[in-house]
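Notebook entry, structure prediction.
Reason for the run: the old model in the group folder had no record of what sequence produced it. Starting over properly, with the input documented here first.
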Amino acid sequence: MIILTGGAGMIGSMIAWHLNTILNENKFIIFDELINQEQENNINKRKFVDLLNKNDLPKYLKNNNKITAIIHMGAITATTESNFNKLLISNIRYSQMLWSWCSENKVPFIYASSAATYGGGENGYNDNETSLSKLTPLNAYGYSKHFFDQWALSQIKLNEPSPPQWCGLKFFNVYGPNEYHKNRMASVVFHAFEQFQKKKEIRLFKSANKKYKDGMQLRDFIYVKDAVEFVIFFLKNNHISGLFNSGTGTAQSFNDLANAVLKNTKGDKSNIKYIDMPTDLKGKYQYYTEANLDKILATGFNIKFKNLEEGVNDYMQNYLLTSDRYA
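New structure, fully documented this time:
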């Protein structure tokens, strides 16, 4: 039996989608906290054993010994969250509790870290654990993920109890179906689509960095179906542990993103408008991200990632532009 936390969220529900539709697997339990209709819609089509509140997981774990893996995607993911006490409870203490249980019960543990741990990228995007201490996240969310990564690694170095397999996946800019509940934290792809539908324009942030022209800020955008492949790979290869980048390895610009959306909406470049960056993002904005994938490729992981045009096309044609946008 697989435990899937955050299973009603974007990546979590798409893991459930992959388990159901690709692997024909329904022996998993979703733990989450559903706070709106979109999250319920994310899992309406899925087949699974049970759906329980995330707060019930500690009690559930005490009474069950047939768990084969814990996939931990549940967390506060808002990069603008400023209440560190909330992040401490949800992103650190909860993860430590699951780590300890997996260690004691010899159960593989796969969890979501984030590319936000890399901060402004001044130390690169290499997922080598030896360079972990050099990273400086730009916001509290990134720090909470970075803290747990460091804590997990310290358990290994100190020879403290650890899961038989542990994998922290540093997800880069994920976009795709089932992100509609995320509001402001939804991907730029989704916001660009919504903006064009409503006002026939796509708004991108102006650049405050002389190295980048407006719209030419670069990110490693990864389609959610590709992001899920990382989780499935480690689920199948439980002899591999460590921190791993989960991106495409290729940075593309926000202009590329806007043009991919416009191609599907019959718009053109004149529909792109550049706006000032919100005050709460100034000084906390990543101008360039690109996953170094050398480490995971060395394990035998090998898939053909969708580029922005391919991913946006699937997202829009099979979800956003249909009567039912949920996977």
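Summary: The chain has a mean pLDDT of 94.
The old model has been moved to the deprecated folder.
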